[in-house]
Amino acid sequence: MRWLIVLFCSAYLCAAEGLVTDQWFTGQLNGATALSGHETVTQSADGGLVTNFTMTMLFSRSLAGFTSTMSMTQKRHFEEGADGLIHSFHFDDDENGTRTTARGVIKDGVVEADITRNGQTRHMSIPVPEGIILYGNHGGQQLLVESSIAVGESVQFHSIELLMGHIRLITSTGVLKHRSVDGSTVYDVTVDLMPMVTTSMSIDPKGDLIRMSLDMGPIAIRLKRCEKPVPLHGATLDVGALVHNQGRAPVAQGRNLYRLPKRARQYIPENEFQCYNADGLLVVEDQAQQSVPEKLDTYMKAEPQLEIDDPSLRQWVQQQLEVSSAQTQAERAECLRMAVRTHIRKKDLSKGDATALETFQSACGDCTEHANLLCAALRIAGIPARTEVGVVYASSIGGWGGHAWTSYYDTDLKCWALTDAAYPGINRCMYIMTAVSSGNDDFQMNDAILAGTTALMGKSIEVCTGR
């Protein structure tokens, strides 16, 4: 949701060379003042624009008695030509002191970017599909302001963002809802990565944003212009209230049948543990179907979230296995699950999405950090593993909660097996996976996580087991 705000809180005002826009925004998250934004736009002699936008969010996450405060700041710097097209960019994300930066240029139909996090820099080259034009703040706003479409018709534009440590191409579609006689407009905007989420934007005749609203079930954001910075009081989000349970509770073992929201089904995939039956119900089993992955070595490699080549991390994994009596693959996996659970000494919901190495060094985190560290440890031990995300039904939170966990491939049994360092003792039939966050193409993985998470947010899962 943070990047949606940054993406759409841009403004454009045609003026002479020099500073053309300097404005503040204030926003509410679930009714509490939790967002603050500042934007400046400078025009150069050749008509190009330099846009700087900073958005800060302050909120707390609570789950099962734990509460952690999160402070997030996003900075977006675009250099755009007179035609509105992006020439270069600099993004900077800070989540409670963990920084991710991206610097890049767009040249000859390719986005070239260097991304730095935790002292490590990697390069990304992203070909821009033929016919796709990447607009910055100026270009995107201009398309909406100058569009001659009728009410109910749509206009589409493309841009770039920093999401989950990757630069992503983003396609936005704006549907005109209202055009006033003074030239101001109201658009409903959807982004391809979150197709079930609509953002309402009001834009004045000069192209400046007036207000914006975004509703994702239990999360409601309201943003508007203001005269000066506003102090943030922060908001509280109950992580356990993001997805509702309808009817009875799932059975604790064996299999469960779930009826998902109709529109959400296309974003919730099948895998070895879960599949749809003839009635359209999602059937989730404790035991995975036997399978032989086509590219098993995919689940043994280093990834941006899994730094399995780090010497200190490898030494730690080797020490855990040496002092244990584990012989079988399942025993070694359980040894490492317990080692991760013991190593992470502090339950901390303030981490956005720490990597395996960051978690190992800080020894704190929530389910995502447990899953990433365990997945990396398993791969170091020679056990194919993947991190999965979705929701789990847990008695400790009284229903469904967003979750991340780990599965490993048992080469002896020829099937995947659940191993969860954060919420032990819950059988797989009480999990619903929305995406695999490792062992996949990075872009497909990011798409699946965002689409699957937002597809269930604020919706109900009906338990149909036993009917």
Textual characterization of the structure:
By secondary structure, the chain is α+β, with helices and mostly antiparallel strands. The protein has 2 domains: 2-237, no CATH class; 242-463, Roll (C8orf32 fold), CATH 3.10.620.30. It has 7 helices and 26 strands. Mean pLDDT is 87; it is low at 1-16.
Strand content: 35-45%
Query: What is the oligomer described by this structure?
Result: single chain
What general outline do the C-alpha atoms trace?
globular
**Share in helix:** 10-25%
Query: What integer is the average pLDDT?
Result: 87
Q: Helix tally? A: 7
> Nearest-angstrom radius of gyration?
23 Å
Outline the biggest β-sheet.
15 strands, mixed
* Alpha carbon gap, first and last residue: 38 Å
Query: What is the number of domains?
Result: 2
Unreliable stretches: 1-16
Number of strands: 26
Helix vs. strand class = alpha+beta
Question: Which descriptors apply to this entry?
Answer:
467 residues, alpha+beta, C8orf32 fold, 15-stranded mixed beta sheet, 26 strands, 44% strand, globular
Question: What's the arrangement of secondary structure elements?
Answer:
Blueprint: H1 2-8, E1 18-29, E2 32-43, E3 49-63, E4 66-80, E5 86-95, E6 98-107, E7 110-117, E8 120-127, H2 137-146, E9 154-163, E10 166-179, E11 185-191, E12 194-203, E13 209-216, E14 219-226, E15 235-238, E16 244-246, E17 255-259, E18 274-276, E19 282-285, H3 311-322, H4 329-343, E20 346-347, H5 356-362, E21 364-365, H6 367-380, E22 385-394, E23 399-410, E24 415-419, E25 431-436, H7 442-456, E26 460-463
Parallel strand pairs: 3-15, 16-26, 20-21
Antiparallel strand pairs: 1-2, 1-14, 2-3, 3-4, 4-5, 5-6, 6-7, 7-8, 9-10, 10-11, 11-12, 12-13, 13-14, 17-19, 17-26, 18-19, 22-23, 22-25, 23-24
